[in-house]
Write a structure and sequence with these properties.
With about 160 residues, the protein is of the alpha+beta class. Helix content is about 35%, strand content about 15%. A 5-stranded antiparallel beta sheet has the order 1-2-3-5-4, sandwiched between helices. Bound molecules: zinc ion.
């Protein structure tokens, strides 16, 4: 298995983890641009990962704090999957990736960074990006890159 080298994730790994849940808190702060929220649907929303594995790393989460698909209502599940499809289309329009990793980690031992609030990751991939990322891997570049990526995705959002 190849791993993407993402040194800016150290900031996340070293940061004090607060008791709050980012997927509950960020949508309630009513500042979608600052919180990197790209799109909202009835039951779920698309947000950029501030500590991405690759440029364009998005997450889709339900508003409701539940830890698994089985705890969602059928309507919420359909809405969540529609948002995942919208995020997939958005990444395709904005960046034309050659591939994508889409996945869910349920539980801490499975690698969930935020345990207890279901979220689906979408990571766009390009051939050779595991070699390419160290070139981009300057920590100070990332906040600016995040902003640029957010604006570019917003432009490509279907209205
Ligand atoms: Zn939550």
């Amino acid at each position: 298995m190849q791993r993407i080298w993402a040194p800016w994730r150290m900031e996340y790994l070293m940061a004090d983890k607060t008791d709050g849940c980012i997927f509950c808190d960020k949508p309630q702060e009513n500042d979608d641009r600052a919180r990197l929220i790209l799109h909202r649907s009835t039951h779920s929303f698309i947000i950029m990962n501030a500590y991405p594995y690759n440029n364009g790393h998005l997450m889709v989460a339900p508003y409701r704090h539940v830890g698994s698909f089985s705890e969602l209502t059928s309507e919420e599940r359909v809405d969540l999957m529609d948002e995942v499809a919208a995020a997939e289309s958005l990444l395709t329009r904005a960046f034309s990736p050659q591939g994508m990793n889409v996945g869910v980690n349920l539980g801490e031992c499975a690698g969930a960074g935020v345990v207890g609030h279901l979220h689906v990751h979408l990571v766009p991939r390009w051939a050779g990006d595991t070699n390419f990322m160290p070139v981009l891997g300057e920590t100070r570049v990332i906040p600016e890159l995040l902003r640029q990526t957010y604006e570019k995705l917003l432009e490509n959002l279907e209205r």
